[in-house]
Each structure stands twice: as C-alpha cells, then as structure tokens.
Amino acid sequence: MISVEGLSKLFGRIRALDRVSVEIPKGIGGLIGPNGAGKTTFIHILAGLIKADSGRVEVLGMDPWSHRYELTRRMGFLLERPVFPMNITAMRYILHVARVKGLPDSEAVETLREVNLLDHAERKISGYSAGMKVRLGLAKAMIGRPELVVLDEPTANLDPRGRIELLKLIKKMHRDKDVSFLISSHVLPELQKVCSWVCLMNEGRVIEQGFVGDLLDKYASKTYAIRVSKPRELAEALNGLNGLKVKLSGDTVYVKDDASIIRRALPNLILQTGNEIIGFRQLGRSLENVFINALRVKKHGG
Amino acid sequence: MVVKSARYSSMLETVRFELERVWTAPYLGLILMLFIIGGPGSATPMVTQESVFEVALSTIGGFKSLLLYLVTILTFANAFGRDIEQDVLMGELTLPLRKEIIFAVKFITNFSIILLIDFASTLLFMWIITASILPITVLSIVIVDALSLLLFASITILMSIVLKSRFGAVIIAITIYFLENIMLMNVSIMISNVNPPNLDPMYILLKLILCGEVTVYTWSIILLHFFLPLALLSFAFFFMKEVLQLD
Questions:
Q1: Which of A11, A61, A294, B74 is the most exposed place for a label (fewest CB within 10 A)?
Q2: Per-residue pLDDT for A157 more than 80?
Q3: Closest Cα in chain B to A84
C-alpha cells in the first residue's frame, strides 16, 4: 500500500525524517513513536501536504506530492488536531465532503450514523466537544469507502470510552468494508489491540518494522509467569529440567528459558503435580517493551 | 465526461460552501451597515460639491473608500492567511480539491461579494443624492473600485501565502495602501486642479478619464492597477501550487 525509501525531510536545521525506508502492507498498520519522532511529518508527506527533500514515496502506487488530487479520491485523512469551519453544522460539512468526492448525500447521513454523530448533526461544529470533533474528522476520513485511511493521533482527545468505541469502529470498518488503516499514536496498548503491523520511529528514524506478532516474539522477555494452584510443587518439578531458571513468588512461578521447552514440558508437569493453571503469560509481550528493546538494540547494537 | 462533470459539480459545491462558510448573515449585515454609513462617498465623485449637504456627504463618504480597502484586505487575509494559519487549508487539501480550484474559488467568491456590496451601495446612494441612476456612472465607479481593490487583494493574497500569516499580510497591505494613496494624491495634484482633498484619488482619476483628460499618468496608473495585480496573483498561485508546504 505504502512504499517509502530513503525519505528525508529537514525543517531548517531540524531533521524531521532521516532516510526513512518502510513498506506498509494492507490491513491495519501502526506508526509508533514518542512526540517528535517524525510521525506527523511522515503523514503530511503521505497526504501530499509537504514535499520530501529526498527519497521515494509511493502511496497506492502514486507520488503524493504530484498526485495529491488522485490520491485524496481514494484515501481519507484525519490529521492531528482537525480544524473545521466552526459556523456551520456537522451535517453541512459532511455533505460538502460527500459532494466534493462525488458521493450521494445519503452517504453523508450514513457516515454520520456510523460515527454516532447523527443525533448531533444539525448542531454547529463550534458547539462540539473535542471528542465529537475527532469523530467528525473520522467521518470525513471514512466517507465513501476509501481504500486507505490515515489517522494521526486519533485518540489524543478522546476519553477512555471514546477510545474504545473508536478502536471498535476501526476494526469494524476494516472487517466489513476492507478499508486499510495507518494509525499514528504514542499510546501503544491501543495500537497493539488493533494493528497487525507496526513501524517504530524515533528521532526521525525507523528503528523497527514488522508484523506485531513477529515483533512481540522477537523482543518479548524469555520469562514466563505461570500462576497455578500448587506453585511450590510446580517450581520443584521445573527445577528438575535442564537449563531452566525458576523463581517462586507467591502463587506465581517465573521460568526463564526457551519458550519451546516450557511449552512442551509444561502440560505434563501440570498433570504430574496435580496442578490447575490459573494464568500463563510471557513477560514483556507488549509494544512498549518492543519499542524499548528495539531502541536499545538500535542505539547499542545488541 | 464523468470526471469532467464531477469536477464541475465539486467546483460549484466549493463556491457554495465558501459562501456559506465566510459570508454568514451577521457578517454580511455588519459590512452592509458600515457601507450604508459610509455610502454617500460612492456617489459624491460624480457630484459637484456646491451645497453644504454635498460637502457633508462627501466628508462622510471619505470613510467608504477606507472601509472598502479594509474589508477587502481583511477578507482576503482571512480567506488565505487565516485558513493557512489555522490549518483549515490543510483540511481542504486532504479532500479531492485541486489547488487551482481552491485558489480560484476563494478569490472569485470573495471578490465578487465585495464588488456586489460596492455596486449596491453605489447604486443606492447615487439614487438618494441625484434622484436618478446613471448605469454607466455606477459601473465606472465599481470598475475603478475593482481595479484599485484588485491590487490590494493580490498583495494580501500573496503575503498571506508567502508569510503564512494573516497579520503580516494585513500590515503589509495597509502600509502599501497608505503609500499608494500618497502617491496617487500627488499625481492627482500634478495633473488636475479639481482635487477636493476628501475624495479618493482613484475617483479623481476616474473623473479625469470621463472628462477625456487621459494622460500618460492616468494610463500608467491604470496599467499598474491591472497588470501588477495579475502578476502578483499569478505568483501567489504558483507559490501555493508548487512551493507552499503545510506542516
């Protein structure tokens, strides 16, 4: 969907993007990084709002700077801090977007219903809360079933309930309408819930990219926490296995080693010790951990 | 054919939306009210100021010219500078709208509205003062206004886009307005002995043209007010299309 190679962008002396190369597949992708990582600049280049200093960018097979018009017919954008004309109603605004995209007016009504704004559609946008404005921006981005929707920090102004609703909506749009998404955020647990693929950025550079499952496997800790009904017995049984480091803490047994040994041996050991599994998790299996470790690897080379 | 009709309708929709967005009823009402207050000036250039009444009208009318320039400068600073400053243009550019359509719609819509207001107020006060309407006179006044306003509209648009700031654009346009007024006043004094100090120099030029006193000065000023704005508008458009980056 998006192919970027050697992309660089300078703002005066500040290097916003530094030789960024990334291949973003179809599906729900995430752009992860702290503030100042270059995510917004990257998205503005994808939207054709700014021109790259060097490098190659292709979105849906086109260069966004020279084919902005063609791309915006096939894509939707929700920029960070979306700004709308304040003295008109949300319905009028979305009707405008629909007409500009050559869609029937009914699409505007349907899209406002999808983002739960239909009941407030006749209110002026100036009276909208920050969360409602984000949903309106989402309606603007999603109207007309685009192939790709790019969302820049969409959950930044939303309360927890609004965030959950938004993530559900994104999943639904992807599942029902086959819309691909690229979501930029620094709230990593949210992205982990919806994204199948992520790109990690820091200080204008890509530090890692790939499918979420692969990255979690690569960077997660090799320690497993096993909560069982008889932890002491299980710890003793695990100690008998070669090469495992076992630690008991309360009702949880921590085991550090290759995942395959534990997964292979654990069912038998549970049965032998007459245990019941209450919980099992791999420590550090989160995008936060992936980010920290990937950054460490990038900086120190290992 | 399908693409053409879609583009045409999206342009019409953009014009409608710009009108609804900017020229709301309260805003339009306020401007009309101001023009009515300053309106007599739009008719007075055609009147010989002999009576106290006409002198009074002419004095009030002095505001009209200034008002017209200010409205034009502020309108275009808002249409371009504010929209760039507040990221409204950024939002527009994420829609399938060509930059040339956005530029043309913003310019034509706002300029047409200003000229329409000018036309209406000139017509009204021409009728109040002279009890008759001379279409050619009203049209001449509006054409002169259009020419002089075009210069300030183009300066404001260019500065808004280049500086990405409506404040900067307004300051520069107003400064040039006063400098130009001083220059025109001097030219008027040079070429004419009919120069009531409270009349806009552009009207004096119009008066000279209507009297057949078309000299090298009048021609140079007319050309300046026609070709310079076109050049500035062309450059502003080029800058917006090829150079302007929104981040």
A1: A61
A2: no
A3: B88
